[in-house]
Design a protein that fits this description.
Blueprint (H helix, E strand, L loop, with lengths): L3 H19 L1 H32 L5 H78 L8 E10 L8 E4 L12 E3 L4 E8 L4 E5 L7 E5 L6 E6 L5 E4 L12 E4 L16 E9 L8 E6 L8 E7 L8
Antiparallel strand pairs: 1-2, 1-12, 2-5, 3-4, 3-12, 4-5, 6-7, 6-9, 7-8, 8-11, 9-10, 10-11
Length: about 325
């Protein structure tokens, strides 16, 4: 049987717990009501301040209060600005550096574009000048009759020091055949040694297997054979040492002397100028060095001389 004071203790504890639970709800309700009331008052106060500020932007009590507040906060603004200035400077430095790098890259791209355009313009000007020389020769009295020019561009150059061939952008479709003479605006270049439909291979005068019959215009009657010499020079070979050849003499192609033995090159195409003449007691011929008129190492535009009449066949 339970002691008599136990029932009373349980009753007291039960009543205390129930009172504490019931007392929590009114406190929560009052706190929510207080927060809503404060929020409403602040909203109304903010609207009132905005209204007063719009109605009196430059005068009135509110304006004075704003000025006083700005004056009070001014030291804090200055301090904040001094604290933030190093960070702004660092940001500005890196931002300026990134902008400078971007502008530098843009300028480099523009320089490359303009440099390419300048190179293209220079190449175009050089090609125009070379073509103008060719046209001048074609319209001059020295141009060989019974030949028509095929003006074209040089599309490849010698691949090495021992390669003396170039490719041109014209072939059998333009009437070019084997052994067609090729000239530049300055003089003889060589002859066609391989032909394709739209391209041809030209062997230069400086090739060891090249040989051109030539005549000295300054000393009439002096004939010889233009062959490969040392470096980029030519030799006026097979000239008897009794003949008179002087430094500065002009050499041109001899052309066909006997119809039964037609020459590959028509008469009068400029070849080069004599730069030295040597004689030896033990040699039968003069040693005559010639520099070619055509700039064989920097050809750009040339003309192939296509015969308009068939070459007579040998008996």
């Amino acid at each position: 049987m339970a002691p008599p004071n136990r029932t009373a203790r349980v009753a007291v504890l039960g009543s205390s717990v129930q009172r504490s639970r019931s007392s929590q709800y009114p406190s929560r309700g009052r706190s929510a009501l207080v927060r809503r009331t404060v929020l409403g008052v602040l909203v109304v106060l903010a609207l009132a301040l905005l209204t007063i500020s719009f109605r009196s932007p430059t005068s009135g009590a509110l304006h004075d209060v704003q000025g006083t507040g700005a004056t009070v906060l001014r030291p804090f603004q200055v301090a904040a600005g001094r604290v933030a200035r190093p960070f702004r400077d660092v940001y500005g430095y890196f931002s300026g550096l990134a902008s400078a790098k971007s502008e530098n890259a843009q300028l480099r791209r523009e320089v490359r574009v303009w440099r390419a355009r300048a190179a293209a313009n220079l190449a175009g000007a050089q090609r125009s000048a070379a073509l103008a020389k060719i046209l001048k020769f074609e319209q001059g009295p020295a141009y060989p009759k019974d030949f028509r020019p095929v003006n074209t561009a040089v599309i490849s150059f010698p691949s090495g020091p021992f390669d003396q061939q170039v490719a041109i952008a014209a072939g059998s479709n333009s009437g070019i055949r084997l052994n067609t003479p090729v000239i530049s605006g300055d003089g003889l270049v060589g002859r066609v040694t391989n032909v394709f439909g739209s391209t041809s291979v030209v062997t230069l005068l400086t090739d060891p297997d090249s040989a051109v019959a030539a005549v000295d215009l300054s000393s009439k009657g002096v004939r010889g054979l233009i062959q490969h010499g040392q470096g980029n020079t030519l030799l006026f070979d097979r000239v008897p040492k009794e003949q008179i050849v002087k430094k500065g003499d002009l050499l041109v192609t001899q052309g066909t002397v006997e119809r039964r033995y037609p020459d590959l090159y028509p008469y009068g195409i400029p070849i080069g100028r004599v730069i030295s003449v040597g004689r030896s007691d033990i040699a039968s011929y003069l040693t005559v060095q010639v520099t070619p008129f055509a700039h064989l190492g920097s050809l750009d535009t040339v003309a192939a001389l296509v015969a308009t009449k068939h070459t007579p066949k040998l008996p």
